[in-house]
Structure formats: structure tokens, C-alpha cells
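We treat protein structure as text, and this decision shapes the records that our systems exchange. Below, we set out a record of this kind in full and without editing:

***
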Amino acid sequence: MTCDLAFTAGCEGGVAADPAIQSAILESITEAASVEPRAGSSSSPLAVNSMVSDALLRSRPEEELGNCVRKVVLLKFNRCDQRFQRALLQRPELEPVRKASDKQGFDVVLPSKAIAFVHPENYEAVLEAIARDKLVLYADHVLVEPELENIVKDVVKGIAKPKAESRALIELSSASSGAQAEKEHQPTAGAADADAFSLLNWPLEVERTFIHFKVPSSLLTPSEFAARSFKTA
């Protein structure tokens, strides 16, 4: 099994990796690699992805760092049929974040039918930021923490291969009166075409938006990963 991990800090201007989180992830992967691969074993790719997701949730230190602009990623797909929904809501790779949200009384399926895979301490802040800027979400949207983005894409990839993505950066903070966007392409918030629901083999087209918001110091955790990739073999 080969793993390539690239880490960057989640605060603006930060570039250093968080040693505690690196250590937790590598420990989980090493533990999986030490077991003889066999059917149903914990060293399967699905189990490794689930352990990485769980390690990312468990290894977030609690010390306060003051106000820091944090972000979640908004992904928009070109379809949201039942297979798409089932993959996100039932696959084991995302079970840790689903359980963490449920434990705090947060539903990963929002009233808009969009799905939110965010840390519980960020859940309400993200919803407030979205409401303040009047962003309209639909069932083809997924909100996800940056360090879980690749896991979400891997889960969906089993249904359809993602197409090229476009990226928009939306600045949200208590100090600003509105959102400022830097983008290569502005995503369109709208329902998927009706015929997309009936074509199960259509590839997914992903639009990617960063949502930034400020978290009070009492809720803040230190670092996130703006970019992370790994592969198992």
C-alpha cells in the first residue's frame, strides 16, 4: 500500500503541516498496512479510507488560537439521483463524520436536500455564513471539510467519474459586509436537469466553491488541509 499525503494549514497565511494530525493519519494507515490483506479485513481500501476519515476527526487539538478564517468546500454535481444519495449517506468511508454530526444532533442532509460533511463545531457557523450571503443550495450540492474532499470524491467516483471542475473562492467573515469572489468560473446554483436523473451512467461534473467564515476562539481548532491526496494499492 502506497500513501501520498500533502498537507497545508487551514488558516490564511499558514503553510505548516499539523504534526499531530499527520501522526494520527499515518498511524491509522500503518496499522492497516501491518495486517495481512484478506477478504473483509480492515486493510481493504474502504476500511483504510474510513480510518483516515476517523483519524482526521479524532486528531483535531482543542487549544485556542484566536480568530482565524476557516473554510469548507462547496461541491456541485450534475446529478443527484438515488445512487448518488445512497453512496454519500451509506458508504463506510464517510461514517465517522456522519456519526459525529448525528451525535451533536446535526443532520447531514440539510432542509435544501444538500449534504453537509462538516465538523460539528463548524456546522452552525457554515449555515449562518450561507444564509447571510443568500446562497441557494440544492440536492446536487455537497458541503465538505477540505480534508474530507478527496474521500467524498472517491465515494462518488464509484458511481460516475468526475469531470473537470471549476473553482470559486467566497470570502465570508464577520468583518465583511458581503462576499468577495475570486473565481475561474461562477457555479450556477440550480436543480439538475430532469433527464440527468434517469441517466445513471452520466459522469459527474463538479463545480467547487470555497466558503470562508470566522469561528469564535472558543470553538476554534487549529489546522486544516487545503490539499490532500492519497492512494492505496
